[in-house]
Amino acid sequence: xxxxRTMASIISDCTxxxxxxxxxxxxxxxxxxLQMHLGLYAIQVRRAKELLSALEKGDSPKENQIDGSLFRxxxxxxxxxxxxxxxxxxxFSILGGAGGAPQGTLREWIDRDFGSFDSFLRDLRxxxxxxxxxxxxxxxxxSGRLLNLLGDGSVTVPFWGAAPLLAIDMxxxxxxxxxGWDRAAYLDSVLAQIDWESVARFLPLV
Length: 206
Ligand SMILES: [Fe+2]
Prior knowledge:
- The protein is mostly helical.
- It folds into 2 domains: 14-94; 104-200, Iron/manganese superoxide dismutase, C-terminal domain (minor pseudopilin epsh fold, 3-Layer(bab) Sandwich), CATH 3.55.40.
- Helices cover 51% and strands 10% of the residues.
- It has helices spanning 15-22, 31-57, 68-94, 104-114, 117-130, 176-179, 183-191, 196-200; strands spanning 134-140, 146-151, 162-169.
- A 3-stranded antiparallel β-sheet has the order 2-1-3.
- Helix 1 packs antiparallel against helix 2.
- It starts with 14 loop residues before the first helix and ends in a 6-residue tail after the last helix.
- Fe (ii) ion (FE2) binds next to helix 2.
């Protein structure tokens, strides 16, 4: 028998798992910043679940009714909450590592697509500093090529089929308490603690 899953099952609150993984392991990013940042993520997950439940219950106005704007607003808000929460999950997943350089398939693909790991890091660093919100390393599933991309705002996501492997949060709340306006110092701290084994887990099985 097929048991229908709820729409809200698309996302779960992983705050506790990230807290256990990250506290004491994020260098210049303080526990105070992490606590605040995880709280923001938890709100995004809760809001996404509330929106999904409301949409599934069907208590939205019918299409073409004048109050259809509420339905539209919920759908737009849902995209924002899911995009923001999932980028945060990726960001928290790749923090708290030893930095350095990746090994294995990920390193081979970086060298293949960027020429060298140093070239990749330079491009990722420049991309992140040019962003007002998110920077991602993505795998284009059609060509199999890696790209560094940015998005200003959580709903500005890469193109279809670009699977993110790594996310860097460049919004003010990620660094202002610990680094002031020195975005470069914050970014250096992130790059020095990337958990490359976690990044590699997002690669497809080959
Ligand atoms: Fe954030």
